[in-house]
Amino acid sequence: MIPIISIVGRSNAGKTTLIEKLIPELIRRGYRVATIKHDVHGFTVDQQGKDSWRHKKAGARTAVISSPWKVAVIEDVERDHTIAELRDRYIRDVDIILSEGYKGNPHPKIEVFRAALESNLLCSQGDNLFAIAGDQPLKAGVPCFDINDVTGLVDLIEREFLLIR
User: Fold this and answer.
1) What CA–CA distance (Å, rounded) separates 121 from 113?
2) This prediction's pTM
3) Which residues on adjacent β-strands are paired with residue 37?
4) What is the 3-state secondary structure of 51-114?
């Protein structure tokens, strides 16, 4: 089963930036990476007037856009899916999944912490927190890394979730 690591934190803490740094380091080490981004506000992939938009507007439940380089699926769903459901339904041929958001999920989490934005951590070890990436040292019973210590974070991810596979 493909391991899932959730990058969580408050708004503007730097979750996306951290993921942007983790991906190339994981790839440099030979791993194939997928990402899942949770957006509670909804989103639009297909643009008004484009063929896929027109197909959906006409009533198609699922529209697939395919090219020699990419595939996109636009599918109506009845509910918000869990990360594991999304992994099992859509993701293949990767070694690890990094998710952004989903702070309430049961998967291992790295919390991005910025002292200027937060007074308390969102997660604890009981929430499956396994590391903190922050701008100040914290004592939370899990390893705490400087926000820019991507090598240290990937070392931990590799040791805990990739090398054991």
Assistant:
1) 7
2) 0.88
3) 100
4) HHHHHHHCCCCEEEEECCCCEEEEECCCCCCCHHHHHHHHCCCCCEEEEECCCCCCCCEEEEEC
> What stretch of H or E contains 33?
strand 33-37
Q: How are beta strands 144-146 and 62-66 bridged, if at all?
A: unpaired
Which domains does the chain show, CATH number per domain?
4-40+80-162 (3.40.50.300), 42-78 (no CATH)
The position carrying tokens 């899942």 is: 36
**Tens place of pLDDT for every residue, the chain, 165 residues?**
999 999 999 989 999 999 999 999 999 999 999 999 876 655 667 778 888 888 888 888 888 888 898 888 888 888 988 999 999 999 999 999 999 978 888 999 999 999 888 678 888 888 999 999 999 888 889 999 999 999 999 999 999 999 876
Structure tokens at 7: 């990058």
CA angle 72, 77, 78 (to 5 degrees): 175
